[in-house]
Design goal:
Layout: E1 10-14, H1 19-30, E2 34-39, H2 42-52, E3 59-63, H3 69-80, E4 88-91, H4 107-135, E5 138-143, H5 156-175, E6 181-188, H6 194-199, H7 211-221, E7 233-236
Bound molecules: NADP nicotinamide-adenine-dinucleotide phosphate.
Amino acid sequence: MPQLRFQDKVALIAGGTGALGRAVAAAFAREGARVIVTYRRQPEFDAFVSQQQGSGPGVTGVMVDATDAGGVARMLEGILSNGGMLDILVNTIGGYHGGKRIWEEDLSSYEQMMSLNLKAGFVLARAVIPAMIRQGRGWIVNVASRAGYGQSPGAALYAASKAGALALFDSLAAEVKSFPICVNSVVPSIFDTPANRQAMPAADYASWPKPEEIAEVILFLCSQQARIIHGAAILVYGRT
Ligand SMILES: NC(=O)c1ccc[n+]([C@@H]2O[C@H](COP(=O)([O-])OP(=O)(O)OC[C@H]3O[C@@H](n4cnc5c(N)ncnc54)[C@H](OP(=O)(O)O)[C@@H]3O)[C@@H](O)[C@H]2O)c1
């Protein structure tokens, strides 16, 4: 039987019950990783687990708000207790808000975008890096967005939060350059999710990348073969 690619790895998938997070968690589980997903709603996690029966050593979940540093620290303590390891962090947490120009926006939308798209990644990364340094290995992938490169009229807060995330993880990559830890971002444009199909019923879905295709890129970034990719932002726009 061929060796599975992530047989000896533990992967934390933040936002693992979301559209992309589910595909990433399922792909790691299929490749033999022990997968821990964060979630906020129990029924979503239960539905995800029931689809995963029989694939790999299994998926466990932790209900946590990833913007809560105390909750994330407790989650890490649990993962690392009794000699546990954490090899991989993939942050798929994020959310979109748009439709207003900057001068029409309110402060709560600003806080929400920064919290979801920037703070969650910061809280998670600062929690896992010390363990990865101690272990002498680690891989981090943050999911950004094409909007982070700017020119997003009507979605400036989303764009700014994703630009912040790109800069945060790029800077983190520079900070861990002397450790065997890979830090990268993937940068999707629109991809094929039930929410996007519902929001854009007349769109040509065929041209949208599938979450499973983006997940494959993320798995590659977390593999030994991608060791030389560090501090990169990999565009996964497909033909959109
Ligand atoms: N969909 C697209 O076309 C698109 C395009 C470009 C970039 N992206 C980015 O790709 C990533 C994944 O997108 P997606 O469409 O898969 O999103 P999604 O389906 O909405 O999933 C996001 C997940 O994050 C979770 N989450 C939100 N806030 C959280 C918090 N504070 N703590 C813990 N979990 C939290 C959500 O849980 P709840 O369900 O409980 O809220 C959900 O499971 C995001 O970063 C998004 O910005 C998406």
